[in-house]
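Colleagues,

For the teaching module next term, I've prepared a clean inverse folding example: a structure given as tokens, and then the sequence designed for it. I'd like students to try predicting residues themselves before seeing the answer, so please don't circulate the second half yet.
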């Protein structure tokens, strides 16, 4: 079995570290506080939440829900995603538990179909069925408050609600959350700047309403020890230097390190001791495999966007992108053209940034794409 999971829920035995963070979540949630969980994208937020849900203090004692609202663009979609998640979690728990939820969801009762043999309802709700999203949302929160077990609801990429056309979504949600005793919330996301503004600004509805956890990279020595141990447990061997290289190539960015090692484990012959050359060989093969998709992605950009993207990829982490020095070094057109290109690249999720004070540091969201751009350009 490949010990480096890149899909699905990671079993505890194959979960790398995060003990401090998991223990903190258990203490915080069981002591009735809500949580703001932030990290760069693909640093392991989702897996941490799933891992936390498997802890003996949580599993079987709570109804646990997780929904990623990254694709949503409106309150209607938000409500649909929440209701679908609750339905899917409750189906395996039996008809009586599910009926408890459906009896509360009165605004959508006419949208359910029933299996003629089992009598179990099928969630066939369409986006257009949600005519009154605020009403349905109220019913969802009403269920969570009255459920037979306490609930934990994780809402990932929570910053998306800031983009909804309905401008009072934060206030609507906060009005429900602040009155609940039976449900704790984990508000998670990758846009630290927007989320911290939502939860730390005195002018915002969610001000001072959560405990905060920032998920940073796993310490190098712990990750390297984990990598070597998992190879040994599988009857394989990897040199410590090769494990360190896999970590350093992506600066400890969890998804990419795990992805590379997943393919190293699958590619290198089991009897061979994995060394640095093997890691680099597999990386090159991965980039070659992705090259067609990456080329297609860049073909959708205009010249100004592409040259700005290349400049930032070569820098790795770019600050002062509209400065004279950065523009001259990379032969860019002008500060205004760079600013416009960055705005477009951020909207399309190709770029991301971290903010410290007033300074923004830009980088490519996909570390494999960044490596490929450096090689091609």
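(Answer key — instructors only)
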């Amino acid at each position: 079995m490949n010990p480096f999971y890149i899909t699905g829920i990671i079993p505890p035995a194959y979960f790398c570290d995060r003990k401090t963070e998991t223990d903190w979540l258990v203490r915080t949630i069981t002591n009735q506080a809500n949580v703001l969980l932030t990290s760069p994208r693909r640093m392991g937020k989702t897996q941490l939440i799933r891992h936390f849900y498997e802890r003996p203090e949580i599993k079987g004692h709570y109804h646990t829900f997780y929904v990623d609202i990254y694709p949503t663009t409106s309150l209607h979609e938000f409500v649909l995603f929440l209701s679908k998640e609750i339905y899917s979690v409750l189906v395996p728990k039996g008809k009586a538990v599910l009926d408890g939820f459906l009896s509360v969801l009165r605004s959508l009762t006419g949208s359910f179909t029933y299996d003629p043999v089992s009598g179990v309802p099928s969630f066939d709700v369409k986006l257009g069925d949600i005519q009154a999203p605020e009403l349905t949302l109220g019913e969802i929160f009403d269920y969570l408050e009255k459920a037979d077990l306490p609930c934990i609801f994780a809402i990932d990429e929570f910053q998306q609600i800031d983009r909804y056309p309905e401008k009072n979504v934060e206030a609507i949600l906060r009005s429900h959350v602040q009155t609940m005793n039976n449900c704790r919330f984990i508000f998670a996301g990758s846009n630290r700047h927007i989320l911290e503004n939502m939860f730390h600004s005195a002018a915002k509805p969610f001000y001072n309403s959560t405990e905060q956890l920032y998920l940073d990279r796993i310490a190098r020595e712990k990750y390297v020890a984990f990598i070597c141990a998992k190879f040994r447990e599988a009857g394989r061997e990897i040199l410590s230097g090769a494990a360190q290289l896999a970590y350093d190539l992506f600066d400890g960015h969890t998804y990419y390190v795990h992805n590379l090692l997943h393919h190293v484990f699958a590619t290198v012959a089991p009897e061979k001791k994995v060394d640095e050359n093997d890691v680099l060989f597999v990386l090159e093969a991965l980039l070659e495999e992705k090259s067609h998709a990456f080329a297609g992605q860049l073909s959708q950009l205009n010249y100004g966007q592409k040259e700005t993207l290349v400049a930032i990829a070569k820098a790795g982490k770019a600050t002062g992108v509209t400065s004279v020095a950065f523009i001259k070094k990379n032969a860019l057109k002008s500060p205004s053209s760079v600013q416009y290109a960055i705005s477009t690249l951020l909207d399309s999720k190709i770029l991301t940034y971290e903010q410290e004070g007033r300074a923004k540091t830009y980088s490519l969201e996909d570390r494999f794409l960044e490596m490929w751009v450096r090689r091609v350009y």
